[in-house]
Amino acid sequence: MGWKVNGLIVEGTLDPGRLPGRPRDTGESVDIDTVHERPCDYGIAMVGGWTLIADPQFLASFNDDAVREISDHGRALAWVTNSVSTLHGFAWYVDGAPVRRIVYAEGEIVDEIGEPIAEEAAAPEPLDEDYVFEMMTRLTGQGWGDGADARYRVWSRTQ
Predict the structure, then answer these.
(1) What is the pLDDT of residues 35-74, one digit of tens each?
(2) Which of 21, 28, 50, 158 is an S-S bond match for 154, by CB 3.0 to 4.6 Å?
(3) Rounded-to-integer distance, Cα 147 and Cα 159, Å
(4) What per-residue string of b and e applies to 109-127 under the rule 16 or more CB within 10 Å gives b?
(5) Mean pLDDT confidence for 89-100
(6) Would you tell me how many other CB atoms lie within 10 Å of the CB of residue 156?
(7) pTM over 0.85
(8) Which residues are bridge partners to 9 per DSSP?
(9) What are the φ/ψ torsions at residue 98 (nearest 5 degrees)?
(10) What are the CB-based long-range contacts (under 8 Å, 24+) for 22-26?
(11) The CA-based dihedral angle spanning residues 110, 116, 130, 3, taken in that order and rounded to the nearest 10 degrees
(12) Tens digit of pLDDT for each residue in 108-153?
């Protein structure tokens, strides 16, 4: 099965109103597919002590300034997997700063910072969707199924 999803997972709770575009809660609750199919600006869910942000327009994912703004004292994981365009990767943040980022497109590295982290042991090259989902579990303890099954509150930008 192919995927075309991305997002940001932030340790603990956060104020979604601090995300780019200063979004507001619409009061609507939807599944992950709806967030990405519409697309919504953001879908926000809490799972296992982490805030999951579905971000179909890449407003916060892989945006170092946005991640710093919302996770300055914790850990965060930005991730993307798109089987159609073979775009797969992740970025790991600690205390709001990017520690490691690696993104592959069409089998080639297109973005990389930092040295490989211990959790990357035995990573396939190029990265694929299964490995991106595995990294979610290794780094946050939350698997893809946890996020895929969650209900997301829809947040829309005001700016």
Answers:
(1) 999 889 999 999 999 999 999 999 999 999 999 999 878 9
(2) 28
(3) 27
(4) eeeeeeeebeebeeeeebb
(5) 95
(6) 13
(7) yes
(8) 52, 77
(9) -70, 125
(10) 22/157, 22/158, 22/159, 23/155, 23/156, 23/157, 23/158, 24/155, 24/156, 24/158, 25/153, 25/154, 25/155, 26/153, 26/154, 26/155, 26/156
(11) -30
(12) 999 999 999 999 887 777 778 888 999 999 999 998 889 999 999 9
Q: What is the DSSP string of 103-123?
A: EEETTEEEEEESPPPGGGTT-
C-alpha to C-alpha distance for 71 and 86, rounded to whole angstroms: 28
Q: Are 82 and 88 in contact (CB under 8 A)?
A: yes
Q: Which two tokens stand for residue 152?
A: 């997301």
Return all residues near 122 (Cβ < 8 A) that are at least 6 apart.
none
Dmax (CA) for the chain in angstroms is: 43
CB atoms near residue 36 (< 10 Å): 20
Q: Are 141 and 129 in contact, with CB atoms under 8 Å apart?
A: no
Q: Flag whether pLDDT at 1 surpasses 90.
A: no
Q: Which of 75, 64, 107, 114 is nearest to 88 (CA)?
A: 107
Fill in the amino acid letter for 111.
Answer: D
Per DSSP, 129 falls in state H
